[in-house]
Structure formats: structure tokens, C-alpha cells
Amino acid sequence: MESQNPISGQVKPHSDKITSELPVSTPSNNAISVSKKLTLIPLIFLIYFEVAGGPYGEEPAVQAAGPLFAILGFLIFPFIWSVPEALITAELSTAFPGNGGFVIWAEKAFGPFWGSLMGTWKFLSGVINIAAFPVLCVNYLEKIIPALEAGWPRYVAILVFTLCLSFLNYTGLTIVGYAAVVLGVVSLSPFVLMSLIAIPKIKPHRWISLGQKGVKRDWNLFFNCLFWNLNFWDNVSTLAGEVENPQKNFPMALLVAVIFTCTAYLIPLIAVIGAVDVDQSKWETGFHAQAAEIIAGKWLKIWLEFGSVLSAIGLFEAQLSSSAYQVLGMANIGILPKLCATRSKKFNTPFVGIVVSTLIALALSYMNFTVIISSANFFWNGMVPFDEILQVKEVT
Fold first, then answer.
1. Fewer CB atoms inside 10 A, N or C side of the chain?
2. Number of C-beta neighbours around residue 30 at 10 A
3. Do the domain assignments include residue 29?
């Protein structure tokens, strides 16, 4: 049996040996007959929400290092980090097309102990990230409904958001995928409109500005901003067993998602820098909404803020899917009890994985938002996939 290497394009013998040595999580025969697989377009948008969710959060790069370095950062950093990580994810996901993704890779490369450790770290990082998104939604809504700023109304709002979004995930990955398409298009549309309206106001000399005199560059903030916004390409690997024709669709989806994501960051950044002249310190998270008001009026600011809520919903759904199918995959390769591989009889979704991820995220969502993000960063171990591919290639 032969397959095409997603990196080199060369045809080589497919590693039947690899997949036979390692249990790969796949649905039962009955489930396959009734379950719809994830197709190319929904997969692209799920990857987009695993990584970015829109240009929200790119603004501190300008504050930290000035306009020129911010533009260069979002132009160059994808080739240093995003493209290599996406290529590794494509190759390993097609070699091991089962749910569990990076956990399967780690077990193959380093053994069961390290597979278990990798799975635990990444799962904790994922569910902590999930906890942040309902909080973000409520943070945006409290600007319209002040009662949500504190107390029991805030707690109830977070609870309702978490449970409703988790139920959507429970109804099926195909539904989540098409919801991601809608959320992505609607949440990006105000940025497209803002960029178009900004064109007559753009002054190109602002793009090459090194920043205001006397403002010290914060390289730590700058690289953290780039890394946070252009990372996590391997998260989608846990869904490989649910993708239609993964050997073809996974590499293509990752290629399109990388181009789409980087373009979604760069175009609004270039447009706003060129059209808006403000103090560098104003470029904090959320400044794009202020820029929208300056460029087009308050109506576009409101639209963009509404888009940020939709983006947070998309991020929640994508990350919950990744975490839930990771639990299922870990159970199927023996790291977790078989109970954790339980699927919904009606929707064929990983019921136990969704419930466990939701409950942990719900408990964490009442923490301080900064603490949530710091905790997620603590558990993230992104260099492991680079080690894994070297070990897998050496073994096979």
C-alpha cells in the first residue's frame, strides 16, 4: 500500500507497520454507518479557531515594538513557527489518522509513560483555555449589561454560556464544524469592512515607523503576543479519526488555514496602522474596536465587539472538541479507562470527554482571568511535537 508524503510529495510505502503496532481510535462499525465525517471546509475553520479566531489580541505587538516590527513579526514568525508546526501536524496526523493526535505520537516516539504525561499536560492546558472563553464573552457583554460585572448575575451568565456551548458540542462535530464556518465569516466581516474603508485614509510612511521616541521596546510582550496568536496548530490532530479522507484533507486544510489565519492577522493590522495615528500606548488588547470607531463610526465598533463574542464562542467549541476527542483517544490506546471512550448513542460524540472537560472548565472559569491564562501557559508543552517527529522518523 502506498501513500503520499504530505511534506515532500513523494510516494513511499505507507507504514502499515506503524498503524498496526499502535492502537488507533476509530468509531465502531455501527457508528461509522451513521456518523458523518468532517469535510475540508469545516476542518479549515476548526483549525482557524484552534489557533486564532480572528485578529483580536494582536494589538499589543504594536504597543510592545512599534508598527514596523509588528508587521514584520506577523509576516515572518509564521515561517519560523507556524509553518513547521503545521507541516509536522500534517505528516503525523496522516501517518496516525486516529483520535488522540499528539498523544499517539508521544506514545509511539517515547513510550506509554511519556504519552500519558503529554496527554495530561495538553489536556489540562486545553480545559484551562476553555474556561477563559465564557469569561471573555461575559466580559464583553458586561459593557452592555453592567449587572454582569460581578456577583451572582455574572456567575449565572458564565454557567449558562458554558452549558449551552457544551451542548452544541455534544450534538456532533459536523454541526460544530459548520457552526465554525458561520462564526468565522461573521466575526471576520467587520475587519474586512474596516480594512476597505481605511484604504483612502492610509499613509504608507506609518508602516515603517519604529515607534515613538522615548518608548522602550518590550520584547517579552512582543514575542509572547506573536507566539500566543500563531501557535497551537497541533491541537486539531486529536480529531484526525473524525476527518473524511485524512491523508488528503488534513494537509490541505492546514495549508489553507495557515494562509487564511496569517492573512486575517496582517490585513487589518496593516490597514489600521496606516489609517490611524494614535499614541503607541493605546495599542492594547481591544484597540481594533477603537480603531473601527475612528475609521468608520460607532456602528462598526459595536459590530466588531459583537464579532469578538462570536470569536470566543468559536474558540470554545474548537478547543472543547479537541479536548473531548483527546480523552476518547487516550482511552482507546489504554492510557485512560475504557469508560472514557464512551460515545453518545444519539450523536456519536465523546460524551464522557465532553462532560469531564466541561466540568473542569466550569470550575476554573470562576478564577481570575489572568490566572486562567497563566495556568494554561504553564501546562503547554509545544516543543514536544518537534521531538516526536524526529523520534518517529528514526524508529520507522
1. N
2. 10
3. no
